[in-house]
Write a structure and sequence with these properties.
about 650 residues; alpha+beta; 8-stranded mixed β-sheet; 7-stranded antiparallel β-sheet; 13 helices; extended; FACT complex subunit SSRP1; SSRP1/POB3; DNA binding; DNA-binding
Amino acid sequence: MGDTLEFNNIHTEVKGSWNDGRLRFSKQSVVYKSHKTGKVDSIPAPELSAAQWRRVCVGHGIKLATSTGHVYRYDGFRDTDFEKISAFFKANYKVELAEKDMCVKGWNWGTAKFTGSLLSFDVNDSPVFEIPLASVSQCATGKNEVTVEFHQNDDAEVSLMEVRFYVPPNTGDDGSAPVEAFAQNVLSKADVIQATGDAVCIFKELQCLTPRGRYDIRIYPTFLHLHGKTFDYKIPYTTVLRLFLLPHKDQRQMFFVISLDPPIKQGQTRYHFLILLFSKDEELSLALNMSEDEVEKRYEGKLSKNMSGPLFEIVSRVMKALVNRKITVPGNFQGHSGSQCITCAYKASSGLLYPLERGFIYVHKPPVHLRFEEISCVNFARGTTTTRSFDFEIETKQNNQYTFSNIEREEYGKLFDFVNAKKLNIKNRGIKEGMKGADGYSDSDEDQHDAYLERMKEEGKIREEGDGSDESEGDSDESFNPGEEDDDVPEEYDSNASVSDSEADDADSEDEGKKKKPEKKPKKVVKEKKERKPRKEVYQYLMNDSMHDESRNRHDFINPLLLSLRPTEEAVRSAQCLSCVSQEWDRKAEEAKKQYEKAMKEYRESGGGAAASVLYCNPCFFSVGQNKSGRHVTCSNDIFW
């Protein structure tokens, strides 16, 4: 058997909410570290007095009791873990791991037992439920009832508000009422803040950023009291997780940050951090409201009765002694300007990001603290508005992403080296190392492959090859003079891309006998006119097949999607399909054009042009003929019976 036993995904109940973490048994102590807050509970091995193994709602659990009266409960073990944990306890702690069954009879009449900071309700010496007295916020008494109210946890989906106990009216041995005795036992261990006695010291009119305002801070032995013009807050020292002392970038101010769990509340707003702002030039002389012997005995030299110095040093020294927590300061990181922080923006506010030895902290609105152990990866992204800045993205293991934007590009090299030295996973390491130049950042956007841009370029090339040849060829190969006209171009708009020879001859015959028009100057041709591709004929022939009544059923069989389309939508759909049907429909359009030219020639030779004959368009049955000027009027489809 090894010197340690470790278990992951072990749960502990914190004011009605389950927090998971890692539990480790060693020869010296029992250590539990929460994944959510990083808080560490350590139980020295000599203080461990009793241990119980029992079945709970989440697998199996262990209940540990210490000689100091504290009780710890951890759940999430498997049935097979009992043997090795029991053997480890016997060998290293000299404590037997006893099995204890919970009572599941459902009775509501039993015996209330107070064991340290735990209230246990038993039926026939088997516990039905247990209440940690540290979760009790208030205790009220009635005639024969005791009402116990609890602190609320915002992380809990369902919260227990209160429990009422009925106490029989039997007089105790000492003559006291059972109800009062029950209430006193609860209040002696409950987390009920009562401002009794004098404060150890008072700090007047301190500037607080969150919650914003100026507050008088009264320091009591067990809690912190913030008194402002509008709100009062009482903060137990047990809810303080960490203390931070951070220098401002201007080197003239200091931030003192207190991390809280659970947070303080103001209506629906929760404050997880208490941030105080001090000026380095502000001095203070403080005298504690205690005797020198009492100060020496209680704080073991950490404080003295009379202290003087900068205000931020006095406040941080007092808080460190009373909360019994270390103060975290920035490490050896130095930015481009020599400061220990980076100016950036988080969400809609500008603030300062401090790279610490074990995490990052951002102040001040809203404050964010991220530990390295909860970070999954980081990413260096380009700024969205300018290349003079970049974004620093942090993704946690809980799939939460924090983006700190508008960081000056001069800070890139320092921040990249810091993250790399801390062995954090950099998502785009290869790209950014290539970008890193003499100044730590590159302005060029061409050194990073943009897959979306390349895809759009390819689609544009395909679209130009398929649809863009009509307009580009006609405009680029000829020079246009506004004062000149072209004999080959019809006066009225003709959808046909090219004019046949038979049509030109017919136009000459139609103009005979009429007033001869003046000769038109020939147009200068710069380049040889290229033959234009019959794209419009292909489109009209495709529409002919898709819209004609006789071929509608056949087309729907080919493309069932068009059954649900209106004519306008069908036209758009057919136009989109035009690029896919080049060869087959080009051939059909050419054959139809030849048939039309042959029929038109026969029609004109038979004298059909002398009268106002009526023709009908094949696709839409639009009647066509001649206008008053003798000019031929056609349907835009140009395909006739």
